[in-house]
Write a structure and sequence with these properties.
The protein has 219 residues and is an alpha/beta fold. It is built from eight helices and seven strands. It has a seven-stranded mixed β-sheet with strand order 3-2-1-4-5-7-6. Helix 4 links the parallel strand 1 and strand 2. The radius of gyration is 16 Å and the shape is globular.
């Protein structure tokens, strides 16, 4: 039996993650650490680059970007101010001063075309309606420089008990699992004008994630 897609509205996302900000670091470290670490390894950040993280969350990856790019540009946006408060705390505890974190919307990135060498995005598309994937990926493509790198991490579909239970809960009450469900991004990424260089599946405590590294084909 097919179930209609259920996703949170932007207002619901802000409400859910404003509440989750207090404990998100614990959840992230339990289920997302391996995938984030692998994504950062594959991103191959070079000091001096212009880097954008979309959906910064509490800054679990952004703090590492600052460490790897001490002389470059580091921008980050998130839809939820409460999550950004946590991210700013991590950034302020670093020795870096080359960063900017602010509220922003992935659907409308407030940056000029061809601004960034690298765009990192973790655990966001698994929140969005599938019909909106192409629109957001087009924005990512727009702000990346020719040959710029896109690194995506998302919850992936799985066959295990954890994935089955997660999907079942999501169909009933998406907010109980943070609005996230397993998604496959490869085809949409290619359709948006990227060439996929790496696609990895990483699992932690039974929660599967997909890490994709792609390059913009902008002429």
């Amino acid at each position: 039996m097919a179930f209609p897609e259920r996703t949170l509205t932007k207002t619901e996302v802000v409400t859910v993650y404003a509440r989750a900000a207090r404990f998100y670091d614990l959840w992230g470290r339990l289920t997302e650490t391996r995938a984030r670490r692998r994504a950062l390894e594959l991103a191959r950040v070079r000091d001096g680059e212009s880097v954008l993280e979309v959906a910064v969350g509490t800054g679990l990856a952004f703090a590492e970007l600052l460490r790897r790019n001490p002389n470059g540009r580091n921008d980050g946006i998130d839809l939820t101010e409460a999550m950004l408060v946590k991210a700013r705390e991590k950034a302020e505890h670093s020795s870096a001063n080359n960063w900017r974190l602010r509220v922003g919307d992935a659907y409308h990135l407030d940056f000029a075309p061809a601004t960034f060498d690298l765009l990192l995005n973790c655990y966001m598309f698994d929140l969005l309606p599938e019909a909106d994937f192409s629109r957001v990926l087009a924005e990512f493509h727009r702000v990346l420089k020719p040959g710029g790198r896109l690194v995506l991490v998302n919850l992936a579909p799985g066959d295990g008990v954890v994935s089955w239970l997660w999907s079942h809960i999501h169909r009933i009450r998406p907010a109980w699992v943070g609005g996230c469900r397993g998604v496959r991004m490869g085809g949409q990424v290619r359709d948006a004008g990227f060439v996929i260089e790496t696609s990895k599946r990483v699992s932690q405590f039974g929660v599967p994630s997909e890490v994709i590294v792609a390059r913009s084909t902008r002429p």
